[in-house]
Amino acid sequence: MQQVVVIEQYGRYLADVANQHQKCPLSRALVKILAASKTRTQEEVGVLLEQGHRLFGENRVQEADAKWPDLKARYPDIALHMIGPLQSNKVAEAVRLFDVIETLDRPKLLYALDDEASKQGKRQAVMVQVNIGEEPQKAGVAPDALPAFIADCRKVAHIELRGLMCVPPAGIPPAPYFALMQQWQREYDLAELSMGMSGDWQEAVRFGATEIRLGTALFGPRES
Ligand SMILES: *Cc1c(COP(=O)(O)O)cnc(C)c1O
User: Fold this and answer.
1) 87-101: per-residue pLDDT in tens?
2) Spatial distance between the Cα atoms of 89 and 87, rounded to a whole number of angstroms
3) pLDDT in tens, 157-169
4) Mean pLDDT lowest for which of 13-22, 136-145, 160-169?
5) Is 64 in a helix, a strand, or coil?
């Protein structure tokens, strides 16, 4: 997409999100926009950086590693989140690269992250991804397993549990799923709730999302 279009879209979304937020007396925190920048070039994300935007999400360690280290050196206040599935053998790079890993979804990964964060002298911020629709092909902790997994996350020294994240099933209304996520966020007293994408972010904000993840809405359709 052309730079000027991205800038216009970005401005419009900042205003729309602020507007939607004002209509939601139930939400407790300001809604942040995470720019989902998978498949986008350094030039494309650079357009948003120049507008002052600093929160980005990537789906793949390798792609993030090629795209972000020099941008982070230029803009030290960038916050980079991992929003795609994380393999255990990529944990060292992930801990080095990402400020928040939103896709923590299994005990093995929790302990690998804790070990690696300890080695790197860091406390790794994470969110737990919930497989809210209980879809076999999707990542995330099953709702039944969530209480025990949250307790495990809170026991390890080098992990800071910030919140919950989900991608609800496609093609059906997301409201009931968002409502459950909000209920759990409150029950477990978590600061962050990452939910809502280009197609359903208004609904997510209505249910208290603290972060929405926008890709196509900001950058236009993805080619791959
Ligand atoms: C790509 C992606 C998004 C953004 O999707 P859009 O529909 O393009 O807004 C959000 N969250 C995750 C986990 C993604 O992979």
Assistant:
1) 999 999 999 999 999
2) 5
3) 999 999 999 999 9
4) 13-22
5) helix
pTM of this prediction?
0.94
CA distance 123 to 148: 21
> How do 124-130 and 100-104 pair as beta strands?
parallel
The ligand 1 site (C-beta within 6 Å) comprises 36, 38, 59, 83-84, 167, 197-199, 213-217
Euclidean distance between CA atoms 64 and 38, whole angstroms: 8
CB atoms within 10 A of CB 164: 25
- For the ranges 17-21, 43-47, 84-88, the lowest mean pLDDT is seen at 17-21
Coil, strand or helix at 221: coil
Give the helix, strand, coil percentages of the chain, each rounded to 5.
Answer: 45, 20, 35
Would you state the structure tokens that stand for residue 11, as one six-digit string? 């401005």
Identify which of 13, 61, 83 to mutate to test ligand 1's pocket (most ligand atoms within 8 A of the CB): 83
Maximal C-alpha separation, the chain? 48
From residue 42, give the alpha-carbon distance in Å to each of 66, 70, 112, 188, 223.
9, 10, 30, 37, 16
Structure tokens at 176: 């009931």
Closest CA to 80 of 98, 61, 62: 98
User: For residue 122, how far is its CA from the centre of ligand 1 (angstroms)?
Assistant: 27
Amino acid identity of 72?
K
Q: 197 alpha carbon to ligand 1 midpoint, in Å?
A: 6
